[in-house]
Write a structure and sequence with these properties.
Chain lengths: ~200, ~180
């Protein structure tokens, strides 16, 4: 009996310790380039559930974590629409995911998401990560935050993580279109020159 | 004839608004006082691109620098800002310098950032960083920074720590103390 208790407490200790190490891994959490991204099933603003598996003909996805309330995300809305217009027909549609908790950010409620999508004329799904379980798997830390995936036999492989381009302020002053370059590289079978870029964004709440 | 009509209408007008005259006077003098006050605490905001800003990250004067990246539109940043102010107050005599680096949008400096600095009576040094090519400079602040704010660098000479997180006062003080040993 004593042995059992000993074993039991040892298991508990291991569990506690591992729980802490998992929690403390901080910015190292989430997908890295080359990882397989797990599929999700999230509610779209039209009420339907959306998964990557629904897109039979896609070659990949431009997964965009964005929201209504972050000024950087708002500045990029038109460019996200353009990305979908340019690349959905080429096999790389945009799927936008809103990761914030609307009780902390009422401006990101499901109703507000619907309204924003209608006002801006979003041509892509705008999904709510209602359980806040998808964005941590990706390792998204902010809005906007882009993950470009390529569909392979093994699954959807993460090919690019980061910003849309190099000038949030002024679309006409952009010198490097990171996401476009990355998708173009995938479409032409070339290597992505800059697979990771960084930009200021609003931390996910 | 015409002059008479004008005269009469002016008189009528004056008698009509006569009741508000006092109020008007007081308002005018208030405006003047406000204007005087405003000119007295006009906020000179230093604005840098990253090349200009980089010196704040690399001082070698044995002081401790606590550099906080924030913006008025960033709710968690604004929430933790009082802790940085408190830290500045509590440790400024111990060679600790708090610098609040605003990433507000330049077109909102006048309407948002400067009024915020004034209303909150910020005592720490506030500077603005305006450099849209973020991918070029974010890794130079820290290779671990994904770009979300709030973010904070604490350094003394060549020893530094980077934090992409929000702080309570106790957590912040604890991290600072590592540099004061």
């Amino acid at each position: 009996m004593k042995e059992v208790i000993k074993l039991f407490s040892a298991v508990i200790i291991v569990l506690i310790v591992s729980a802490f190490t998992l929690n403390n891994s901080g910015t190292d959490e989430g997908y890295r380039i080359g990882d397989i991204a797990e599929d999700f099933s999230l509610k779209n603003i039209d009420g339907n559930m959306v998964s990557m598996a629904d897109y039979k003909d896609a070659k990949g996805f431009i997964i965009t974590f964005t929201c209504n309330t972050c000024p950087y995300a708002v500045m990029y809305e038109d460019r996200i629409i353009e990305l979908n217009e340019k690349y959905a027909s080429k096999g790389y549609p945009v799927i936008a995911i809103m990761p914030n908790n609307p009780s902390k950010k009422p401006g990101d409620s499901f109703k507000a998401m619907k309204e924003r999508a209608k006002d801006k004329g979003f041509t892509f799904p705008y999904l709510m990560d209602a359980q806040q379980s998808v964005f941590p798997k990706f390792g998204a830390t902010k809005t906007p935050h882009i993950f470009l995936l390529q569909k392979t036999k093994k699954g959807n492989v993460v090919k690019y993580i980061g910003a849309i381009d190099d000038n949030y302020k002024d679309a006409s002053s952009v010198k490097i279109k990171y996401v476009e370059n990355a998708v173009d590289a995938l479409l032409t079978g070339n290597e992505i020159k800059e697979p990771i870029t960084r930009a200021i964004g609003c931390s996910i709440k | 004839m015409n002059i008479k009509v004008v005269y009469i209408s002016i008189l009528t007008l004056i008698s009509c608004i006569g009741g508000d005259k006092k109020e008007e006077k007081r308002m005018v003098s208030n405006v003047i006082i406000e204007a005087k006050k405003a000119s007295k605490d006009v906020i000179d905001l230093e604005v840098y691109d990253f090349a200009g800003f980089e010196k704040f990250l690399n001082k070698k004067d044995d002081n401790v620098y606590v550099i906080n990246f924030w913006a008025t539109w960033c709710a968690p940043c604004v929430k933790e800002l009082p802790h940085f102010e408190q830290l500045n107050k509590d440790y400024k005599n111990r060679n600790v310098n708090v610098i609040l680096v605003s990433l507000d949008f330049p077109h909102l400096y006048e309407s948002k950032l400067k009024p915020y600095i004034k209303d909150k009576k910020l005592k720490s040094k506030v500077i603005a960083l305006d450099d849209p090519n973020m991918n070029s400079w974010i890794p130079k602040v820290s290779k671990d920074w994904s770009g979300s704010i709030p973010a904070t660098v604490i350094y003394r000479n060549d020893t530094r720590q980077f934090f992409e997180k929000s702080f309570s006062y106790d957590e912040l003080e604890k991290e600072l103390k590592q540099f004061l040993k």
